[in-house]
Write a structure and sequence with these properties.
alpha+beta, Dihydrodipicolinate Reductase, domain 2, 8 strands
């Protein structure tokens, strides 16, 4: 969101003082199945979170493409443009946000190892983390942009005392739901008969028609517009009522 933590804190203060709407496009939170996952965990149906495994693997920085003038590489490896961190500020931040969005608990402790493999680069391209959640759960996060053959490999597993979910961004319309002693289930988006209302209202087309990445952005934008409209008519929403990532998330 900003170059440094101090800038972010100043921005958060400014948002609080003005009361204006501020949003960050953590787009994966706009996915309809992710909205259902959030309802499952925050309602208590899944019990206490015990273990989280999340990975975000890409190969977009496998080669020194910045030397060839590839724009997507140039800004990512330049601390003057990308900030003080590399992979964590680019991909890892999505992992952190997705975990806290679904579970509703902050990450409280982190042990991290950062690596840079391509010569002459300053910012990290690879990171491996152990982390702890406020509720006692433990987690593993691995993020990288030098993993051969990976495209946008964001994969999430959450194991709790009453069940578990598995979701992959490259196949975003489906989520595996596990309940101990029961058959594994595959949940599909756009099924009103078993999905939460919050999830169903974020869909636009019937089952079997792919819907995902771009529509997730649209879902967030629509919620932002709603908040702006409320602000314009003199009925501003409190930040804790936002249905999109706020300056605090950023």
């Amino acid at each position: 969101m900003t170059y440094s933590l101090s800038e972010a804190e100043s921005l958060a203060k400014l948002v609080k003082e003005t009361g204006l709407v501020f949003a960050v496009t953590y787009n994966y939170t706009g996915n309809s199945i992710i909205r259902h996952a959030r309802q499952l965990f925050r309602s208590g149906l899944m019990g206490t979170v015990r273990k989280v495994i999340i990975e975000y693997l890409q190969d977009c920085l496998m080669l020194p493409l910045e030397k060839q003038g590839v724009k997507q590489a140039v800004w990512r490896v330049d601390p003057k443009q990308a900030g003080l961190v590399g992979i964590m500020g680019d991909a890892g931040t999505h992992c952190e946000n997705l975990i806290e969005y679904i579970i509703g608990e902050p990450i409280t402790e982190v042990c991290a190892d950062f690596s840079t493999f391509v010569p002459e680069r300053v910012l990290d391209e690879d990171a491996n983390l152990l982390f702890r959640l406020k509720g006692g759960g433990k987690g593993i996060m691995t993020v990288s942009q030098v993993c051969t053959g990976e495209e946008n490999g964001l994969r999430l597993k959450i194991y709790a005392s009453e069940g578990a979910i598995i979701w992959e961004q490259e196949n975003p319309n489906y989520m595996y739901l596990y309940k101990y002693g029961q058959p594994r289930q595959i949940l599909d988006r756009a099924h009103k008969e078993y999905l939460s209302e919050e999830s169903f209202t974020c869909t636009r087309v019937p089952p079997g028609h792919p819907e995902g990445y771009l529509e997730a952005f649209a879902n967030i934008y629509c919620k932002i517009f709603d908040a702006i409209r409320s602000h314009i008519v003199g009925e501003p929403l409190q930040m804790d009522k936002y249905d999109f990532p706020s300056v605090i998330d950023g």
